[in-house]
Design goal:
The longest helix is centred in the first third of the chain and has 17 residues. This protein has a 9-stranded mixed sheet. 25% of the residues lie in helices and 27% in strands. β9, α7 and β10 form a beta-alpha-beta unit. The protein is built from 12 helices and 25 strands.
């Protein structure tokens, strides 16, 4: 069926909506590395993005061309994302943790013809791919400014890959209108306004950081603070104090570490935001006690970002991520699965190469929940067994497919394993080949060569057999520690 899309301006470009028309001298972005902070005004940031966009066009990056970003946590990652979008191309923000083999899969699936590279991360074979090196990017930033591409609401804006039930990464294609679809978050979750200074603890290569940490402050003409230095939980309390941060955004695990590192009351801090994995009531209680302010949770997914949340206008109920944000059309399907109406501007265009998958009036999210009489959502997990590993969605089938390739493994099952009320890991249950022994180190090394670190099992248990149905289907929920 044909579903009527949201009404949006005839001309809409995500990068332009974020950067154009803002006070030129106001601080848009503070990037803190191991040495010192670097400040960017809105005027300087837009100029840099448009110069790079113009340079990309002159390099042959045409409208609709896919450009993969193969970089670590750096400002260039964000600049390339916005510049590619401004030029009308489709940036593919990919995790730097992916192995060259995984990158090859994404390149082939997306049909990418360009890759922006930081000169450090390992590369796969790049037949037919134009590689843009650090020297290339530096040179392109010195070229004349380009113009924002004449894109519209349903023009593709960016492509992200997420784990799917097939065991292979699945491309999620978003439209330019995705930036309009973020508006319900500002009142329903973040309470973000022009006088706010928002610190996001994530790396710039994560779509949670690109969205909440950069796009949202830019749209609201606020100030974003990001960190690109070495991992250190003690850095977050210091950044809050040094930059008078009013809102901090992170994941539950980082909040737990930051509280242990001394994050406490601050005269500037209004509240915190959390997403990526469920917020344990124990972390919420510790946060409230230490900071004296509230921590607002949100539930979301790659296909729409966050759409259920608590916030300044939705009081927190421990254990619930909150209510559907104002303006969202959300319902429960008969099996308890959450569904979102296809008219939501934040909902993705399609799965890459599969237009039919998003043609229905209601998009089934795969998340199982109840909604109480007051409208609060109570989340029960994924219908398709996807795991949550530190905020990353991981397909157990993808990990199992690699494990059974090891010569010592006869069979393997993988599931999410709770190690506390606030954190989970990827656990593997392995049936060894007869006479092969139980060489855990060898198996882990084998997997690490083939999968990103966040997908690799943190725990391996050797078992005599795996629980299966009469038809041979693995019952992952029945996998238990021997």
């Amino acid at each position: 069926m044909t579903v009527k899309r949201v009404q949006a301006p005839l001309h809409l470009n995500l990068a332009q909506h974020c950067l154009a028309g803002k006070p030129a001298d106001k601080t848009a972005l503070i990037v803190v590395d191991a040495a010192r902070p670097h400040r960017w005004s809105y005027g300087a940031l837009e100029d840099e993005v448009l110069r790079l966009a113009g340079g990309l066009r002159r390099q042959g990056v045409e409208t609709g061309a896919r450009l993969m970003i193969r970089m670590g946590n750096s400002l260039d990652y964000a600049l390339t994302f916005f510049a590619a979008n401004a030029a009308g191309a489709i940036p593919i923000p990919a995790s730097p943790l992916l192995t060259p083999r995984e990158v090859s899969v994404l390149l082939a699936d997306s049909g990418a013809s360009f890759m922006a590279w930081d000169g450090k991360l390992a590369l796969p074979e790049l037949a037919g791919i134009r590689l843009l090196t650090p020297d290339d990017l530096s040179r392109l930033k010195r070229t004349p400014r380009g113009d924002y591409a004449a894109t519209h609401a349903d023009t593709p804006a960016y492509l992200v890959y997420t784990s799917g039930t097939s065991g292979r990464p699945k491309g999620v294609l978003h439209a330019q209108r995705a930036i309009l679809g973020r508006q319900p978050m500002y009142q329903g979750w973040s309470g973000l306004a022009a006088d706010d200074i928002l610190l996001h603890t994530g790396a710039l290569n994560w779509t949670y950081t690109l969205g909440v940490g950069l796009c949202d402050p830019f749209v609201q003409a606020a100030t974003a603070v990001v960190y690109t230095g070495p991992a250190d939980p003690a850095v977050w309390p210091r950044l809050v104090a040094d930059h008078n941060v009013t809102i901090i955004a992170s994941v539950p695990g980082i909040y737990r570490q930051s509280l242990r590192a001394g994050l406490g009351r601050s005269p500037s801090l209004r509240h915190g935001l959390t997403a990526g994995e469920s917020l344990a009531p124990s972390i919420l209680e510790s946060w409230r006690s230490a900071t004296g302010c509230e921590l607002y949770e949100a539930l979301g997914m790659s296909e729409i970002s966050t759409y259920i949340s608590s916030g300044p206008s939705v009081p927190v109920r421990p254990g619930s991520p909150g209510k559907p944000q104002a303006g969202r059309k959300v319902r429960l399907l008969p099996d308890g699965e959450i569904a979102i109406h296809h008219s939501d501007p934040g909902l993705f265009l399609q799965y890459w190469g599969d237009e039919e998958a998003t043609g229905a009036e209601w998009f089934a999210t795969g998340d199982i929940a109840d909604i109480d009489a007051d409208g609060y959502v109570w989340y029960h997990g994924r219908a398709d067994d996807l795991m949550n590993a530190g905020g990353f969605r991981v397909s157990p089938l993808e990990v199992e497919t690699v494990l059974v390739q090891h010569p010592a493994v006869a069979d393997a099952g993988v599931r999410e394993w709770k190690v506390s009320d606030s954190s989970s890991i990827v656990a593997a249950f392995i049936v060894p080949q007869p006479g092969a022994g139980t060489d855990e180190a060898s198996i882990l090394a084998f997997v690490r060569e083939r999968l990103a670190a966040y997908k690799c099992p943190r725990q391996i248990w050797f078992v005599p057999a795996l629980p299966r149905t009469a038809n041979g289907k693995l019952i992952r929920k029945a996998l238990e520690k021997p």
